[in-house]
Amino acid sequence: MTFHEINTGDTAWVLISAALVLLMTPALAFFYGGMVRSKSVLNMMMMSFVTIGIVGVLWVTYGFSMAFGNSIGGVLGNPAQFFGLANVLGAEVGTVPAVVFVGFQAAFAIIAVALISGAVDARMKFSAWCVFVVAWASLVYFPAAHWVFAFDGAVAERGGFIANTIQAFDFAGGTAIHINAGAAALALAIVLGPRVGFGKVPMRPHNLTLVMLGAGLLWFGWFGFNAGSALGANELAGLAWVNTLAAPAAAMLAWLVTERVRDGHATSLGAASGVVAGLVAITPAAAVVTPLGAIAIGVLAGVGCSMALSLKYRFGYDDSLDVVGVHLVGGLIGTLAIGLFADASLTGSLDTAGLLAGGGLTQLGRQALGAGVVLIYSFLVTWLIAQALKRTMGLRVPMAAEAHGIDLGEHAETGYDLSKAQYSSYNVGKTLWLPNDTSKDENTEVSA
Amino acid sequence: MTFHEINTGDTAWVLISAALVLLMTPALAFFYGGMVRSKSVLNMMMMSFVTIGIVGVLWVTYGFSMAFGNSIGGVLGNPAQFFGLANVLGAEVGTVPAVVFVGFQAAFAIIAVALISGAVDARMKFSAWCVFVVAWASLVYFPAAHWVFAFDGAVAERGGFIANTIQAFDFAGGTAIHINAGAAALALAIVLGPRVGFGKVPMRPHNLTLVMLGAGLLWFGWFGFNAGSALGANELAGLAWVNTLAAPAAAMLAWLVTERVRDGHATSLGAASGVVAGLVAITPAAAVVTPLGAIAIGVLAGVGCSMALSLKYRFGYDDSLDVVGVHLVGGLIGTLAIGLFADASLTGSLDTAGLLAGGGLTQLGRQALGAGVVLIYSFLVTWLIAQALKRTMGLRVPMAAEAHGIDLGEHAETGYDLSKAQYSSYNVGKTLWLPNDTSKDENTEVSA
Amino acid sequence: MTFHEINTGDTAWVLISAALVLLMTPALAFFYGGMVRSKSVLNMMMMSFVTIGIVGVLWVTYGFSMAFGNSIGGVLGNPAQFFGLANVLGAEVGTVPAVVFVGFQAAFAIIAVALISGAVDARMKFSAWCVFVVAWASLVYFPAAHWVFAFDGAVAERGGFIANTIQAFDFAGGTAIHINAGAAALALAIVLGPRVGFGKVPMRPHNLTLVMLGAGLLWFGWFGFNAGSALGANELAGLAWVNTLAAPAAAMLAWLVTERVRDGHATSLGAASGVVAGLVAITPAAAVVTPLGAIAIGVLAGVGCSMALSLKYRFGYDDSLDVVGVHLVGGLIGTLAIGLFADASLTGSLDTAGLLAGGGLTQLGRQALGAGVVLIYSFLVTWLIAQALKRTMGLRVPMAAEAHGIDLGEHAETGYDLSKAQYSSYNVGKTLWLPNDTSKDENTEVSA
Amino acid sequence: MKLITAVLREDAVDDVQIALARQGISGMTVTEVTGYAHQRGHTEVYRGEEFTISFITKIRLDILAKDADADTIVQTICTAGRSGSIGDGKVWIQPVEDVVRIRTGEHGESAI
Amino acid sequence: MKLITAVLREDAVDDVQIALARQGISGMTVTEVTGYAHQRGHTEVYRGEEFTISFITKIRLDILAKDADADTIVQTICTAGRSGSIGDGKVWIQPVEDVVRIRTGEHGESAI
Amino acid sequence: MKLITAVLREDAVDDVQIALARQGISGMTVTEVTGYAHQRGHTEVYRGEEFTISFITKIRLDILAKDADADTIVQTICTAGRSGSIGDGKVWIQPVEDVVRIRTGEHGESAI
Ligand SMILES: Nc1ncnc2c1ncn2[C@@H]1O[C@H](COP(=O)(O)OP(=O)(O)O)[C@@H](O)[C@H]1O
Ligand SMILES: Nc1ncnc2c1ncn2[C@@H]1O[C@H](COP(=O)(O)OP(=O)(O)O)[C@@H](O)[C@H]1O
Ligand SMILES: Nc1ncnc2c1ncn2[C@@H]1O[C@H](COP(=O)(O)OP(=O)(O)O)[C@@H](O)[C@H]1O
């Protein structure tokens, strides 16, 4: 690591940004949870929560080291270098303590994995999801984060090949996180197969207030995601902040207009989805476009993603909550849009500027290459992981459990009990309700 | 702009404060959304969300420039100066980059407009609301923000007349935001007319947990609103922070005591409302009163606002969620209370101190003048905008849509589907349920 | 107070941390509120909210002074010294303005009291709770905070005896807050007696999405709680941040594994509970253990707390939401674990290191002594306060109100009204439904 | 004795209840139901997919009545519950063999 | 065969169900309803406005019974569901022409 | 006229409704209920405590029918609603004395 003076203002900003990014995973749980039917809300939220648990522990043990340890050929960080966060205390990344950077990046790793859960609503065994999280984080995310986020000399001497060799811009993770998770969601949804009744019975969101809550908290957290990626409290962070407001604002409006024209109504699910699409698209670009460029990217994302949603019905894969339509497509739009709109005064040279901002095709090519590598790698490796799990432990819950509700089947819980009259005939613990009459256990199946 | 050294600590604080203030608008969506009936919760939340979209885009294009561009006669900022945020990068406001200040103030503009939506529950056309937002932000908020927030020399050389000529104190926006939005809400509610059944059928809050969530997040965000307005991480911010705790705490208690005495019960809606009333009232005063002064202001707001609510029944206007009672009255209490409690050691001179804090009537007069100008301007211009919309595109949804629920009518959605049994007879897409029997489309109206 | 230079970065971090900690009390309201039956959700949330109101006001008047005023024999701060926050402006604590520290610690005082409410679900008079809050904050929390948090020379010259004489580590409040509140919850639950039907009728959580929301926001806020306790934006804060991720992550996994083994299912309530248990346990230790140590503490907390829950059924006290099982047990685990895992490089000397980290038994002894003193004091004084209230104003609502629902009985409200058909036969205000027929008021009890 | 069951529009309940109360009929049991017949349902749109929801929220009233009151009650419900457009619902009458008031154990018409 | 319908206090359901189960009657269908009659409703207050809510949550049981069992069932419900204060509710008996068990297609008393 | 009441599995409703619609029977009123009989309930676990929940979500259909249609309707429901495992539910038939269509005031079979 290079050694700078620690700056408390920069450190304060990265510390709070890390907390903001961590909040995004519970926020995702609400965003996703509200969109499913009430009988699978808990399972959907649990997939996000348990991802915080699993990836949180992995990151501290070997994940950070795999992503930011000294590069083995630009492909993988040395997992031993920072194992258990050894050698982290006392070091710096830029002007902030290295341990603060560890926390900030931990939150990125967590949300990247959690995003995938939107594709597997209501049918994936919880144990299979847990194993998938371990495998995917280790085999897909940690490497991809290394390629994109590990700049030579920032944490370790040598970093990953997309950042340093291809030199694609990915300010806060459009490629490493959104394209990556989106491609994985597609592969997993295909291997898993659709929900019983997909495309036939209605599966409408059970609680849109929860969706709006998720969207609101995601936006809030995303300021840490994007503006925090400046790794300091400076003008760059400020620009990223304003772009993180402007792009989703424009994307929301674009999505709503698309809906109004196409379906006749502007919906609240559309507003929430538009916000997320705009956030995804501005993520890679937040520091290299002007606010007007951010608005342009937002409009592209709002229109593009809202049109992409119908793909799943056309191709018949059940990407239940549109991880592909929003994160893969949105991530691609943002990553490629850099090649169009990147501003030379922000990127530092005309060579790296976008096509429509006076630059040439060079940067657009770099962007496409970076995105393509991650997309293909992620899709393939995820497909292999999913197949391996399917053939060993199995991926899906029994059909009856799916019909009755995965919350009950996998977690033995129900999301809501709003009945005013709590009549029951329950057993609490092992105490039966008819103690004097043990021959009549009303919970036993009796022949007719 | 004047040029200072950028301070990273101050910048970090304003960056996170900006995110906190932005969170307040989704928080408002929950606060308001929980208070309406379940059939209009989405529309209520959508009015807040779309305001983020619209004002977010306007601010980045011409809004910031209208508010903080060089003043045309103390009345309006030059809209060309910072159009599209030109000339912002590279400049500073105080010790923070100007672009950070742009983001911080963007969040203020957004919430100011969103506050008004509480007056129009369940009956305003969504398209009319969108047009209203554009008009009101441009004709009322941007000018008023200029008058109150644009100090000479802070962003541009010349600022607005309330800050610089009248010299009323408005630390974080009691006048520019709360009185302004409250007066507008009154005008809009009058032109719009009451909900069908107003004052006759019961319209009780459908989800008080959502209201409490909104109140909790609003309070959280308000620390950015008030303490962030110090534009630095310093003792002034600390004082504003503590006052932003003390005043709403006292207001909550005062409101609950009022309720207990008057109605016999202390309610959770009362607690939430008291918090917001206290927050509103301390907003203009947060940096010029001591914590004990803040408690006094809180008590005044808690008692005053809770008593003011019944006005709407007396006068018959349907300010559905009491924007007038809470924001206009609370804003007036806070703005005028400065004239009573402002502490000379904090304002800098005895001349500007409050009546009860050793000062004279001077400051009280300035406060009243500033508040009065904004109140009258806002009421009149809002009334004109509302009349113009009413006569052109129309303001209200059809009566049948209002009865059946505006969520369905305007957004084609329902907030909750908690039914355990998802029986349906739905059509998904265009596929009918009876493919073999196309003569019987069970969704067609059949003659008896 | 000692006088240092103010550092804006440190100040920014403590300012935002204070807001994060304040958010934890609403978050607690949701966490607790979702766990109770729908007929007591508002009362449960109100207990947290009103605690913000009451303790907020007390803190600003005499609470801060009792906790951080110059020590009277190591036992109590001088309540006059900072009464009404006199002498606070212009002073510093470390590198931050003293008034910022006041705000930060205010949020601690609030949540400590609010935690207790989990023990008294659905049966405690709201007025009795309010009086209890005043008494408990004044007689138990302010002294205990003095003992543990007031270091000699930090705010006043002389501080409390646990910090300075016993020299137990309690970084962010495992002893002062969690053991303290847990012991108080036990005493209060015993004096109050169990809910009607406790252990017999089912009392399942009515809204697990609310529980998850609470857990998510608690975790978010806890970064301020722990990392903010470094009182600066530095490496120590970074370490505490990472530990505040690692420990609850591990605790969640440990809790889920315990459940899966014992009950056959990993539940979402278990995930949420595990997170909180891990957060509680790492609180005292966040700055003195390595991330691997944090994982160990998390595992201990996850297993230990999930096993401790059944105690209440064995001993028959109705600690409704397991304040004892999670906060008392979790706080003890964390406080004692310091004596096992504290790292000499972090504590500064081998003498203060933990048993398993090369140190001796010394620190373990100090930890046990500090914890024991607070536990016993809190239990006894709480028991006396509760008895006093029981014998004077009474602690419990009437049995009928408890059966019908405490929300209605104490607050005249219901949490949810999700009925699509809002049929009513209500009276609004005093207007009856049958104006032409006043002899038939359908709300009057009529003889059969 | 008779059991009169009515399925009404959600917004007609208050009027029907008031009308019945004016006639001294103040006992009833109310259920939220959904109905399906000639009245068209509504359409919702989520992420571009349309859902046509055919079941419509209705309110069901069950009223135990003395034989002598039954016709008046039906008449009152029809008058107060009528909007004139499709979806107003049905009222039907069924025989009841006995009614008991749980509180007192009274049987027959005096239990109503 | 008979259909026995009972409208009960919400907190009486468990007792009634247990009492019936003791007599070997273990089939029933339960509906959450609200009722309105002599029992007074409650009052809620929101921002100073009072709402008097007259409808009271009740539980409705529908029990298909053999002719021979009907009286015992009514008796059992009355005994187990009685609190003695206003609002205990009603039980009523109606004739049923036929019952079919869907699973097997059995008709009549054997289908119960 | 008859009232046909069916208590069905939640997931059988769509099939039953389609089957009835095919026969031209398109009026019904639907209620969410819970049932309790031979079918076993399920178990939930909260913080280590098990709750056995015996009541099972069912859907109740009430269909007014002309005398001539009653048997066919019962038959159709039984066929479309049968899964063959415990818990499929019951159908029963009761007499109805009169039906009125609120909108028009029509009486008798023409009101159905
Ligand atoms: N045959 C039937 N059996 C039971 N309920 C019915 C029947 N027909 C209609 N209903 C109920 O009456 C309601 C209104 O019926 P509909 O035919 O839509 O209007 P109208 O009664 O005005 O002709 C339906 O939603 C349904 O609840
Ligand atoms: N005439 C009626 N028809 C149908 N249900 C009734 C009738 N009268 C009472 N009920 C039901 O019985 C419940 C209790 O009745 P109420 O008169 O309050 O008490 P009680 O039966 O003890 O006299 C009511 O809430 C209602 O659900
Ligand atoms: N005697 C009864 N009276 C009313 N409803 C009944 C009766 N017996 C069963 N039911 C209803 O039928 C449903 C299915 O009954 P069950 O005995 O579990 O299965 P099956 O009908 O297949 O034997 C129950 O959940 C209940 O709603």
Describe the structure.
The complex is a heterohexamer, with 3 copies of chain A (448 residues) and 3 copies of chain D (112 residues). Chain A is mainly α. Chain A has a single domain, classed as Ammonium transporter AmtB like domains (Ammonium transporter fold), CATH 1.10.3430. In chain A, the strands form 2 sheets. Chain A has a two-stranded antiparallel ribbon. In chain A, helix 1 packs antiparallel against helix 7, helix 9 packs across helix 10 and helix 10 runs antiparallel to helix 12. Chain A is globular and about 65 Å long. Chain D is an alpha+beta fold and 112 residues long. Chain D has one domain: Alpha-Beta Plaits (2-Layer Sandwich), CATH 3.30.70.120. Chain D is built from 2 helices and 7 strands, in the order βαββββαββ. In chain D, the strands form 2 sheets. A 4-stranded antiparallel beta sheet of chain D has the order 2-5-1-6, with helices on one face. Chain D has a two-stranded antiparallel sheet with strand order 3-4. In chain D, helix 1 crosses helix 2. The radius of gyration of chain D is 17 Å and the shape is elongated. Chains in contact: A-B, A-C, A-D, A-E, A-F, B-C, B-D, B-E, B-F, C-D, C-E, C-F, D-E, D-F, E-F. At the A-B interface, helix 1, helix 7, helix 8, helix 9 and helix 10 of A face helix 1, helix 2, strand 4 and helix 3 of B. Strand 2 of chain D pairs antiparallel with strand 2 of chain E. One adenosine-5'-diphosphate sits at the interface of chains E and D.
